[in-house]
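INFO batch 0412 | record 1 of 1 | parsing
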Amino acid sequence: MPAKKRFIGSGDVFLEFGENAITISIANPKPAAGKPMWRKKRDGVVGIFNCWNGQKIIVHKKLTLEMISTVNSALKSYTEAEICQAIRNYAEILKGSEYYFKYTWTLREFLKRGLEKFLDLEIAKKNFRRDRQSPFAKP
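INFO prediction complete | emitting tokens
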């Protein structure tokens, strides 16, 4: 069966579906230092997906088109390292008994709703410490 190309994103990202693999590529890649742009972007998406699953918050079985699009949007503002650190910070707060924050998000929800809240661990710890209850918590 020949591979199909299916468009996703903002006109520059394509997925190529093979028999046993999915390849992410970018149209008109411009070479950058070290790796071509399409490889850096693909590696970033996969790296963030693996970082998320490594924290065992909600383990996703597969990388969906929607996840790829959301991760690519986050990568426009933040580096892969910053996003992975925010994911680790979120996991630490979520699993820590000294914090009241217990919202369990999927990767997409986290990137849309929680990424900025967890970029700095010390600020997140201060904001979500149990002795500083949420203004929305019931007494």
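INFO post-check: Residues 37-54 form the longest helix (18 residues).
INFO record closed
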